[in-house]
């Protein structure tokens, strides 16, 4: 059909390396004309100009169909500067209220778990992480910094509106899956105010989805289950911070952070959604051509599914599955993995 108008933000560290492989595979599977615009954002730009995300760039990004992002963050930049003013600002400004993080164990993938014992039926779940609220809003402050009386707050913001739209999206996803199970992960025994809001929201929205089975797990217990019985999960809905933490663990048990893809999704399509590997910029291996591009490639599959190219998305997923099944311990370069998957796709 028409052109896919893509914004590409390679970002920091291994970001540009893995994004290049994602684009290689994209080219291999799509018949649509892909127009790419690269945006130079991240540590380099901050050092050169002091800019993180100029308003004019943000406005330009709004004009694209989707954004593909590599990774943001560098040890040479004070912690939080790029994270908050670039990555989180994009998520907030573009209203990416669903941070979608699939956790799927592909055959042949190695896991630190004793899979035969703890996940005999495999692992295949998806985390719907709320993306615009929680402790990520920057609502907090510090007093008397550097004194023995120092005080710092980091307030978790939870609105009914925000929880409800995440919960409704998660229910819809659960309904479309075989097991139709939705687990709310929170900590309502301690975080009583927000916990109550989330629980009630799940209960009330759940009435619209009578065939979805719901349950609840405290976040600390969820980490135990992720290590001892991950097959129990189908769709998890949770707040921004719990979602951040458990999706790293979910990645670790399904083959590692090199495979974990994510979508920062604006389901209302009032702005472009943004797709990125869950991993960071990995400065220790940047420039060596050894980063695993699989997470970025799977993020391209999520991107294609979002823009309605389901066939192309499925072709990428099967190509990745095929590659993983035969991967073994072979040491391949970033480009070799990208080539292999592109050839299969
Ligand atoms: C992630 C990252 C980000 C987050 C950081 C870099 C702001 O850890 O995408 O999971 O906490 O969301
Ligand atoms: Mn994270």
Automatic annotation (TrEMBL):
<feature type="binding site">
    <location>
        <position position="129"/>
    </location>
    <ligand>
        <name>substrate</name>
    </ligand>
</feature>
<dbReference type="InterPro" id="IPR050501">
    <property type="entry name" value="ICDH/IPMDH"/>
</dbReference>
<feature type="binding site">
    <location>
        <position position="248"/>
    </location>
    <ligand>
        <name>Mg(2+)</name>
    </ligand>
</feature>
<keyword id="KW-0520">NAD</keyword>
<feature type="domain" description="Isopropylmalate dehydrogenase-like">
    <location>
        <begin position="5"/>
        <end position="341"/>
    </location>
</feature>
<dbReference type="InterPro" id="IPR019818">
    <property type="entry name" value="IsoCit/isopropylmalate_DH_CS"/>
</dbReference>
<feature type="binding site">
    <location>
        <position position="220"/>
    </location>
    <ligand>
        <name>Mg(2+)</name>
    </ligand>
</feature>
<dbReference type="InterPro" id="IPR023698">
    <property type="entry name" value="LeuB_actb"/>
</dbReference>
<keyword id="KW-0560">Oxidoreductase</keyword>
<keyword id="KW-0100">Branched-chain amino acid biosynthesis</keyword>
<feature type="site" description="Important for catalysis">
    <location>
        <position position="187"/>
    </location>
</feature>
<keyword id="KW-0963">Cytoplasm</keyword>
<dbReference type="Pfam" id="PF00180">
    <property type="entry name" value="Iso_dh"/>
</dbReference>
<dbReference type="GO" id="GO:0009098">
    <property type="term" value="P:L-leucine biosynthetic process"/>
</dbReference>
<keyword id="KW-0460">Magnesium</keyword>
<dbReference type="InterPro" id="IPR024084">
    <property type="entry name" value="IsoPropMal-DH-like_dom"/>
</dbReference>
<comment type="function">
    <text>Catalyzes the oxidation of 3-carboxy-2-hydroxy-4-methylpentanoate (3-isopropylmalate) to 3-carboxy-4-methyl-2-oxopentanoate. The product decarboxylates to 4-methyl-2 oxopentanoate.</text>
</comment>
<keyword id="KW-0432">Leucine biosynthesis</keyword>
<feature type="binding site">
    <location>
        <begin position="280"/>
        <end position="292"/>
    </location>
    <ligand>
        <name>NAD(+)</name>
    </ligand>
</feature>
<comment type="subunit">
    <text>Homodimer.</text>
</comment>
<dbReference type="GO" id="GO:0003862">
    <property type="term" value="F:3-isopropylmalate dehydrogenase activity"/>
</dbReference>
<dbReference type="GO" id="GO:0000287">
    <property type="term" value="F:magnesium ion binding"/>
</dbReference>
<dbReference type="GO" id="GO:0051287">
    <property type="term" value="F:NAD binding"/>
</dbReference>
<comment type="pathway">
    <text>Amino-acid biosynthesis; L-leucine biosynthesis; L-leucine from 3-methyl-2-oxobutanoate: step 3/4.</text>
</comment>
<comment type="similarity">
    <text>Belongs to the isocitrate and isopropylmalate dehydrogenases family. LeuB type 2 subfamily.</text>
</comment>
<feature type="binding site">
    <location>
        <position position="101"/>
    </location>
    <ligand>
        <name>substrate</name>
    </ligand>
</feature>
<keyword id="KW-0479">Metal-binding</keyword>
<feature type="binding site">
    <location>
        <position position="91"/>
    </location>
    <ligand>
        <name>substrate</name>
    </ligand>
</feature>
<feature type="binding site">
    <location>
        <position position="220"/>
    </location>
    <ligand>
        <name>substrate</name>
    </ligand>
</feature>
<feature type="site" description="Important for catalysis">
    <location>
        <position position="136"/>
    </location>
</feature>
<keyword id="KW-0028">Amino-acid biosynthesis</keyword>
<dbReference type="GO" id="GO:0005737">
    <property type="term" value="C:cytoplasm"/>
</dbReference>
<feature type="binding site">
    <location>
        <position position="244"/>
    </location>
    <ligand>
        <name>Mg(2+)</name>
    </ligand>
</feature>
<protein>
    <recommendedName>
        <fullName>3-isopropylmalate dehydrogenase</fullName>
        <ecNumber>1.1.1.85</ecNumber>
    </recommendedName>
</protein>
<keyword id="KW-0464">Manganese</keyword>
């Amino acid at each position: 059909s028409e052109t896919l108008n893509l914004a590409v933000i390679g970002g920091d560290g291994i970001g540009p390396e893995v994004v290049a492989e994602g684009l290689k595979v994209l080219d291999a599977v799509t018949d649509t004309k892909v127009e790419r615009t690269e945006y130079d954002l991240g540590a380099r730009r901050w050092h050169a100009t002091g800019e993180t995300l100029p308003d004019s760039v943000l406005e330009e990004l709004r004009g694209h169909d989707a954004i593909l992002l590599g990774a943001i963050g560098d040890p040479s930049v004070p912690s939080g500067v790029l994270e908050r003013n670039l990555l989180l600002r994009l998520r907030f400004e573009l209203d990416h209220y669903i941070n979608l993080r699939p956790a799927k164990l592909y055959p042949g993938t190695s896991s630190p778990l004793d899979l035969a014992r703890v996940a005999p039926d495999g692992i295949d779940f998806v985390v719907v992480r709320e993306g615009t609220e929680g402790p990520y809003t920057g609502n907090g402050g510090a007093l008397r910094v550097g004194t023995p009386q120092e005080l710092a707050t980091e307030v978790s913001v939870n609105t009914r509106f925000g929880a409800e739209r995440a919960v409704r999206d998660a229910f819809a996803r659960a309904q479309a899956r075989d097991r139709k199970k939705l687990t709310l992960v929170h900590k309502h025994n301690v975080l009583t105010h927000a916990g109550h809001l989330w629980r009630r929201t799940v209960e009330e929205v759940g009435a619209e989805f009578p065939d979805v089975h719901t349950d609840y797990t405290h976040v600390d217990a969820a980490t135990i289950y992720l290590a001892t019985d991950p097959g129990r999960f189908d769709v998890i809905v949770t707040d921004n911070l719990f979602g951040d933490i458990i999706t790293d663990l979910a990645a670790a048990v399904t083959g590692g952070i090199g495979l974990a893809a994510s979508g920062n999704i604006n389901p209302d399509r009032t702005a472009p959604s943004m797709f990125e590997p869950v991993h960071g910029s990995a400065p220790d291996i940047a420039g060596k051509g050894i980063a695993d591009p699989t997470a970025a490639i799977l993020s391209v599959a999520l991107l294609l599914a979002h823009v309605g190219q389901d066939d192309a998305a499925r072709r990428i997923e099967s190509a990745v599955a095929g590659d993983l099944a035969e991967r073994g311990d072979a040491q391949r370069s970033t480009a070799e993995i990208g080539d292999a998957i592109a050839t299969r796709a």
